[in-house]
Amino acid sequence: xxxxxxxxxxxxxxxxxxxxxxxxxxxxxxxxxxxxxxxxxxxxxxxxxxxxxxxxxxxxxxxxxxxxxxxxxxxxxxxxxxxxxxxxxxxxxxxxxxxxxxxxxxxxxxxxxxxxxxxxxxxxxxxxxxxxxxxxxxxxxxxxxxxxxxxxxxxxxxxxxxxxxxxxxxxxxxxxxxxxxxxxxxxxxxxxxxxxxxxxxxxxxxxxxxxxxxxxxxxxxxxxxxxxxxxxxxxxxxxxxxxxxxxxxxxxxxxxxxxxxxxxxxxxxxxxxxxxxxxxxxxxxxxxxxxxxxxxxxxxxxxxxxxxxxxxxxxxxxxxxxxxxxxxxxxxxxxxxxxxxxxxxxxxxxxxxxxxxxxxxxxxxxxxxxxxxxxxxxxxxxxxxxxxxxxxxxxxxxxxxxxxxxxxxxxxxxxxxxxxxxxxxxxxxxxxxxxxxxxxxxxxxxxxxxxxxx
Amino acid sequence: xxxxxxxxxxxxxxxxxxxxxxxxxxxxxxxxxxxxxxxxxxxxxxxxxxxxxxxxxxxxxxxxxxxxxxxxxxxxxxxxxxxxxxxxxxxxxxxxxxxxxxxxxxxxxxxxxxxxxxxxxxxxxxxxxxxxxxxxxxxxxxxxxxxxxxxxxxxxxxxxxxxxxxxxxxxxxxxx
Lengths: 454, 176
Fold this sequence. Notes:
Chain B: The chain crosses the membrane at residues 57-77, 97-120. Chain A has 454 residues and is mostly helical. Helix content of chain A is 70%, strand content 0%.
């Protein structure tokens, strides 16, 4: 029998039994949509439609609709891309890395965090696709397809191409991982339902019957997928950082980028998980499953990764000075005191100073403070990417071509489109899918609940 | 009596009672058809005498296939089919091929293994499972015993074995 130390907080409060778990989670899927959900969903669809005006304008007119110029050729689009991919790191990290480390608190949040990952990666992938200008030809530029251009292949020496493979592998493996976990829960909903709902959830549950042999295989699949997904998560943001690090632009050409980007990605991903989970637990009354203890643990991950990011900023700055390369030194001085000083200092405040507040137990166990700080971290991480991309480019080697980047309404609109898409998908998920992995939670009810079932 | 049609079911409320019960039932010479649970019960494959899953081997083989395909594709395209000088690099710039090779290894290993899992466990969208008890996906563990396989024992004998092992209910279930 599993024995839990008495110093550990129970992971499930309220003396839940197995039946309570089924009821509490399935109830959200079975109930009629609430007014609050409907309003929130329609609002997201509204944002999506509003943003799609900018998207259509960009596709129709070309990327001249954006604020790019001949000096700053990458700005708002790639900032958003890296930001969304970063957010997409928490889900698989929670479900894969924490599974390998046997961290059982992951069970309450992994389903929603993985859903968030998948939706964030969809949003991220929008930007590289749109920024090709003619995305309908994009498949020939991004994939090794036989073609009539003289069988000229894609360039496997380019980190941009590695990114295509990294992001698409990450997306599809995360999707499979998430879906395998959903199958037993769909079966639970199927067995409670009747009529058309039974048919739909029956198909979604793939004929799951809960046999011990299948569970045994399921467990080995989950373990190996976790083993495969762990290096995959680390590889994705490493390769995203290669997009910059393998170039010769001062401010980008640094070997610290891979670990620094990965830490930043986990940092922003956990912040977004907190933002979404604090709202979800409140709306769906899941306080007994996602406890203050869960929130505190996520905040501890935020302190650690936030501190790594802070050290990376300082190291980068030190190395720029220590390298003795004038262009490198200028790039960093320009970040701090140049025309984009406000972006740099927003990044420093939001990412380096604010997460340190979580050292106070009062703050890291406060729902309101956590929610606000999670938003601050997400804003800070957006600025980090903006600072890295725009401030390194806008004053290049030739002072005669120095320029500023200002976003246009189309830049903002396309970003808004991805927000609409993300929240529309998340609200659909929260209504029609079980937001917590019931089967996994049931496996720990006996060992960690306050009141043991029998 | 035909096999795989008539079953006697022991219903258990608790996973630790269930693990004990499986040993007891098997110890008294009864062959268990299968045990159904709402969640994965650790150690159940050992007491049921199931062998370790071979899925890790499938994952490894599919992973190797991914590695081979990725390297073959990149060498063929970059070195043989259309060699180009890119940044003065060697046509076969092996370190540059590693990221894509890694990604395709993971992709094929994951999809190959999951595919094998789906086929081995007979999971498919049009699958119609045999539901022994509707509460299996809620809160009950069910041990199914095929009456035809255990025809040497009388039904009331099997009922006693299940009751004594800690089953909270004993039911019968027949399939067409």
